[in-house]
Amino acid sequence: MFSDYGQVFVFLIFAIGFVAIALISAKIVSPKRPTKGKYTTYECGEDTVGDTWLNLIFDFMLRH
Prior knowledge:
The protein is mostly helical.
């Protein structure tokens, strides 16, 4: 009926469809209640002090 590549193609179509349905249904069902607290930085229960963004030098980390 199908060649070997045809079976793989059908499997990929089903896999992509399953992922698409899962993502779309999660987007539809998920609660959407944005509050001010959700956009704050949380660090182990402590309030952050200063700037929370760090400039990391990856070159330094890769060499050592």
